[in-house]
Design brief:
Shape: globular
Helix content: over 70%
Structural class: mainly alpha
Distance between the termini: 43 Å
Low-confidence stretches: none
Order of helices and strands: HHHHHHHHHHH
């Protein structure tokens, strides 16, 4: 229950720490163990991506109130998968995070690759030819609208209480850093981890210019 209470009232400093600390940690690791040797100005490259992320976050914050309201509504009305099916807290966390990731990340991402109008926005992310940890922050501000709409849709259909929403956002931010980081893992470790989540080497295939 203390776990639930923590994420219900998650400190802003904790969320900021995940975002900034994650970037800093993987920035250092990829500098020591790079998957690819890029001949680029790393700080300038990061500055552009961080600027775009600032705009992206600004748009996303405009939807924050609606996101919280949606979660409060499904909890109060007993609507959505997690409200209809009784399960222990650990199962709520796993099922909730996976389903929110499906709607808020996988589904909208897949659609962005299929719909030309939406692809033009997502192309800003794929136009980065030197993929590193900061690439995970590189998005067109307009894409924030697509992402937030699908995340809110996910919250409603999943029936996600606010602690599950904040847990999902925390995990999602951390994995966005790891997935895009230019880190060279031992192949056996990378292959084993790729069965659980998207590893840097695995994700580089997705960013290849012939497979957008």
């Amino acid at each position: 229950e203390s776990f639930v209470e923590f994420f219900e009232n998650i400190p802003t400093a904790f969320r900021a720490g995940l975002l900034i600390g994650g970037i800093f940690l993987f920035w250092i690791i990829e500098g020591v163990f790079p998957l690819f040797e890029f001949g680029y100005k790393k700080v300038r490259h990061a500055g552009i991506n961080l600027f775009l992320n600032g705009l992206f976050l600004g748009i996303g914050l405009a939807f924050a109130g609606l996101l919280v309201w949606s979660s409060d509504w499904v909890t109060a009305e007993g609507f959505g998968v997690l409200q209809w099916i009784e399960m222990p807290l650990w199962a709520q966390a796993i099922v909730g995070v996976l389903l929110l990731d499906f709607f808020g990340a996988y589904l909208i991402h897949w659609i962005e690759h299929k719909v030309k109008f939406m692809w033009r926005f997502h192309l800003v992310h794929h136009s980065d030819t030197t993929v590193d940890v900061t690439t995970g922050l590189r998005h067109h501000p307009g894409e924030a609208v697509f992402r937030m709409v699908f995340t809110i849709l996910g919250v409603i259909l999943v029936g996600a209480p606010i602690w599950v929403v904040f847990l999902y956002q925390s995990i999602s931010a951390l994995f966005a850093h790891l997935t895009h980081a230019n880190i060279n893992m031992p192949r056996k470790i990378d292959r084993a981890l790729s069965w659980v989540f998207i590893t840097p080497l695995m994700h580089k295939v997705h960013h290849h210019y012939t497979q957008p």
